[in-house]
Amino acid sequence: MKQCQGTKADGTPCSSPFVGADGFCGAHGPGASERMRQRGIAGGRATAEKFRRVFDADRLPRLTTPEDAQVWLEAIARAVGAQQLTDRQANAMTKALETWLKSRSALDAEQAEKLRTLLDELKKRRSA
User: Has this prediction a pTM greater than 0.70?
Assistant: First the structure.
């Protein structure tokens, strides 16, 4: 069986049995670096397209309520299960959602405090 005449990056001979007429595999023959670069670009585009299909703005609600965040979390979980998102991407998105929820709860607490203050002022005015 013929083997590729190329050398891997670590200096060892390539052992690919998929050899063309030139004696090299697809990764080591003439023009291979450009072909591999183009394949990498195509792979990146395919991954980006998967991401766009899963998290299309038309399919997920705008984040305005905690329920919206739950919809996003479910979509993230499904995408990870379907291998449409990497763990790293899912972790980043989940962290962003957690931050959004924390900031929202801080705003809710602030608004509740303002309402309590207004209510106390109204009670004082009523009793005066």
Answer: no
